[in-house]
Amino acid sequence: MDVRVAILTVSDRSARGEREDASGPALAAAAAAYGWRVVRQAILPDDYDRLRLTLAEWADAGLADLILTTGGTGFAPRDQTPEATRAVVEKLAPGLMQAMMQASLQVTPHAMLSRAVAGVRRRTLIVNLPGSPRAARENLAVIAPAVPHAVQLLRNDPDAEAGHRRAAEG
Predict the structure, then answer these.
(1) Domain residue spans in the chain?
(2) What is the rounded distance in angstroms from the CA atom of residue 14 to the CA atom of residue 65?
């Protein structure tokens, strides 16, 4: 299935050119390994309004089936990615958030400090991932098996429900 992915790195230092973005390229490589197509990548500073507007613009334009953000999900004063995401999504996806949290807690107790959000705006799934390249890849790996089916559902694909029906008894 063709899954179109947009990746938004949220980092003041990377946006200013003080630090190379490692997470965005790591996610792009992971998405490609899943057979997904990266259609856009950008770096923004930790700015609530710019994040909110960019997420809404990308989703409303139908640019991607999946928008991945990386960074800005912790406790630092400038970390506002979850708030910007909550402001634009129409439906939360708590199962994705819970799955990422559960898996991350097996790796580090610091996972409980994540405030990552996942949800849907129109026909686009938006998922916040950690800013660390390794943690971002690990969290993406947790939800990756569900992404193609989520995209089918968002596209209102009639075959999306086929896997939910019981086989006829013979």
Answers:
(1) 4-164
(2) 25
Spatial distance between the Cα atoms of 29 and 99, rounded to a whole number of angstroms? 22
Count of C-beta atoms within a 10 Å radius of residue 149: 15
| Residues whose CB falls within 8 Å of the CB of residue 87, separated by 6 or more in sequence, listed in order | 52
- CB atoms near residue 67 (< 10 Å): 24
pLDDT band (50, 70, 90) for residue 164:
low
- Mark 43-52 as b/e (b = at least 16 C-beta within 10 Å): bbebbeeebb
Report pTM: 0.94
Structural tokens at position 105: 């807690």
CATH number of the domain located at residue range(s) 4-164 in this protein: 3.40.980.10
pLDDT tens digits along 42-74 = 999 999 999 999 999 999 999 999 999 999 999
The DSSP annotation for the chain comes to ---EEEEEEE-HHHHTTSS---HHHHHHHHHHHTT-EEEEEEEE-S-HHHHHHHHHHHHHTT--SEEEEES--SSSTT--HHHHHHHH-SEE-HHHHHHHHHHHHTT-GGGGG----EEEETTEEEEEE-SSHHHHHHHHHHHGGGHHHHHHHHTT-GGGGGGGSPPPP-
Per-residue model confidence (pLDDT) at position 163: 61
